[in-house]
Amino acid sequence: MSDTKARTAEQIEADIAATRLRLASTVDELVDRANPKNVALRQVEQAKSQVFDEQGRLRTQKIVAVAGAVAGVVGVLLVIRRLVGRR
Questions:
Q1: Cα dist from 27 to 31, 32, 84, whole Å
Q2: How much helix, strand and coil, in percent to the nearest 5, is found in the chain?
Q3: Residue 50: CB partners within 8 Å, gap ≥ 6?
Q4: How far, in Å, CA of 64 to CA of 50, rounded?
Q5: Residues 6 or more apart from 77 whose CB is under 8 A from it?
Q6: Does the keyword Membrane apply (predicted)?
Q7: Binning pLDDT at 50, 70 and 90, where does residue 4 land?
Q8: Do residues 32 and 38 make contact, with C-beta atoms less than 8 angstroms apart?
Q9: Is the distance from CB of 50 to CB of 56 less than 8 angstroms?
Q10: C-alpha Rg value of the chain to the nearest Å
Q11: Does residue 60 sit in helix, strand or coil?
Q12: pTM score, two decimals?
């Protein structure tokens, strides 16, 4: 500490009490963040934000891009299966 003044026992106790309150608040916040229900809710909200815009409309460009990617992967897998099946 850069404070060279001697502190009284009451000041030290007050600092400790304030630190305990801050620590308790931080622990409560971490417990709330780690709660499985809250984690699931955040994940659902994140997924919704990928599909819907701020006005609640579907983001059709993203849906089309994802559908195209899925179709491409399925197509490649079918071609590989057919080529391997010929041997």
A1: 6, 9, 56
A2: 80, 0, 20
A3: 59, 62
A4: 13
A5: none
A6: yes
A7: low
A8: yes
A9: no
A10: 28
A11: helix
A12: 0.47
Rounded Cα gap, residues 84 and 30, in angstroms: 51
Query: CA–CA distance from 58 to each of 32, 48, 51, 53, 69 (Å)?
Result: 31, 10, 6, 6, 18
CB 11 within 8 A of CB 23: no
Q: Which residue has the tokens 């984690």?
A: 39
SS3 assignment, position 52: strand
Q: What is the mean pLDDT of residues 20-24?
A: 97
| Alpha-carbon gap, residue 43 to 37, rounded angstroms | 10
- Cβ atoms of 49 and 41 within 8 Å: the answer is no
Q: Give the DSSP letter of residue 7.
A: P
59: exposed, middle or buried (C-beta count within 10 Å: 0-12, 13-18, 19+)? middle
Packing angle of the helix pair 36-51, 9-34 (nearest 10 deg)? 60
